[in-house]
Design goal:
Low-confidence stretches: none
Radius of gyration: 18 Å
InterPro entries: Aldolase_TIM (IPR013785), BKACE (IPR008567)
GO molecular function: 3-keto-5-aminohexanoate cleavage activity; metal ion binding
Protein name: 3-keto-5-aminohexanoate cleavage protein
Cofactor: Zn(2+)
Strand order of the largest sheet: 2-3-6-7-10-11-12-13
Number of strands: 16
Keywords: Metal-binding, Transferase, Zinc
Strand content: 15-25%
C-alpha cells in the first residue's frame, strides 16, 4: 500500500440507494447537492463522490443535464476533487451510466470492479409513508436486481473515460475477487498506478462488514499491487465509522456520506453530510493523524487537475 502521512476523506453526499422518504436531510435537488458538497468540503472532505438526481422526484438520474446543474457550482465554490459515479444504479444501461462522465470529463470516476447482487430492500423498513410513487418499488425489488459490470463493460469504461479524458478511477471493490479483476486489467496495461482501491463492505451481495474482511482485503491487495495502490474503505450502514477508524489505523483513507449511511449515531439521522465529515475528521485527528487537502489528494493519486475537466 502506498501510504501517506495524511488521510484523504471522501464524502458521497447522495448516492442512488436511499430515497427522499428515508431522510429529510438527503440532498436531491441541484441546490441541495451543491450545498451539501461544498459544506462537506469545508468540513474537510478532499474528494466528493457524486451521483445525480431527478430534481422533480429525487430518483437517481444519469442525465448530464442533472450533473451539470450542480457540478460547476461546486467547482466554483470549492477546490475539492470531484468524482463522478459510473455505477449509477442497477436500472441504468451502461450508456446511461457514462453520460455524466462523458459530459464532465472529471479528474476521477468510480468504477465497479465486477457484477454483484445489490440488495438494499431492507432499507425501507422504517419508512411509514412514501413521498413518491417510484420509491417503494425501487427499494423493495432491489433483491431481484444485479449491478451488472462485465469485464467488457469495465474495459469500455477504462477506454472511453480513462484513456479518452485522462480521468483516473476509484476502483470500487465489493469482494476479494474484484481485486483480482483489477490486477487483470493492470496486467493488460489498460490502467496505470497508483490505483485508488475503495473497499466496500456491508452491501448484501458483497463482502460483509466484518473488520477481519477489511484486514484480509488489505493483505490481498498488498500481495497483488505492492506499493502501487492507495487504499480507502467504508462500510454501509451502522458500521460506517468503525470501518473508517480501522482503515485509517491500517494506513488507508476513509469515505463517509449519506450515500453510505443516513445516520450519525445509533438511531440518530445525520442532519448533513458535513456532520459525518466532521465526525470522521475528529476520529482521524484523535488518532494523531492529519487530513489531506484536495491538492495533496491530487498529488497522491496523480490526478490531472481541475483545470482539465469539462465543467
Amino acid at each position: 500500500m502506498r501510504k501517506s502521512k495524511k488521510v484523504i476523506i471522501t464524502c458521497a453526499p447522495t448516492g442512488s440507494i436511499h430515497t427522499p422518504s428515508m431522510s429529510p436531510y438527503l440532498p436531491v435537488t441541484p441546490d441541495e447537492i451543491a450545498q451539501a458538497s461544498v459544506e462537506a468540503a469545508e468540513a474537510g472532505a478532499a474528494i466528493l463522490h457524486l451521483h445525480a438526481r431527478n430534481p422533480e422526484d429525487g430518483r437517481p438520474s444519469p442525465a448530464a443535464k442533472d450533473f451539470m446543474a450542480f457540478l460547476p457550482r461546486i467547482k466554483q465554490a470549492s477546490d475539492a476533487v470531484i468524482n463522478i459515479s459510473t455505477g449509477g444504479s442497477a436500472n441504468m444501461s451502461l450508456d446511461d451510466r457514462l453520460e455524466g462522465a462523458h459530459a464532465a470529463q472529471p479528474e476521477i470516476c468510480s468504477l465497479n470492479m465486477g457484477p454483484l447482487i445489490f440488495d438494499f430492500s431492507a432499507a425501507g423498513a422504517k419508512v411509514e409513508t412514501w413521498a413518491h410513487e417510484w420509491e417503494r418499488d425501487y427499494v423493495e425489488t432491489s433483491n431481484d436486481r444485479i449491478m451488472y459490470n462485465s469485464n467488457s463493460f469495465i474495459e469500455r469504461i477504462m477506454r472511453e473515460v480513462g484513456e479518452a479524458y485522462g480521468t483516473r478511477f476509484e476502483f470500487e471493490c465489493y469482494d476479494i475477487g474484484h481485486l483480482y479483476t483489477l490486477a487483470h486489467f493492470a496486467d493488460k496495461g489498460l490502467i496505470k498506478p497508483p490505483f485508488l482501491i475503495q473497499g466496500i463492505f456491508g452491501i448484501l451481495g458483497g463482502i460483509g462488514a466484518d473488520p477481519r474482511n477489511l484486514s484480509h482485503m488489505v493483505t490481498i491487495a498488498d500481495s497483488l499491487f505492492g506499493e502501487d495502490y492507495v487504499f480507502s474503505a467504508f462500510a454501509a450502514g451502522r458500521a460506517q465509522m468503525t470501518f473508517c477508524n480501522q482503515s485509517a489505523l491500517l494506513g488507508g483513507n476513509v469515505r463517509v456520506g449519506l450515500e453510505d449511511s443516513l445516520y450519525i449515531g445509533r438511531g440518530e439521522l445525520a442532519k448533513s453530510n458535513a456532520e459525518q465529515v466532521r465526525k470522521v475528521r475528529t476520529i482521524i485527528e484523535e488518532l494523531g493523524l492529519e487530513i489531506a487537502t484536495p491538492d495533496e489528494a491530487r498529488q497522491l493519486l496523480d490526478l490531472k487537475g481541475a483545470d482539465r475537466t469539462a465543467f
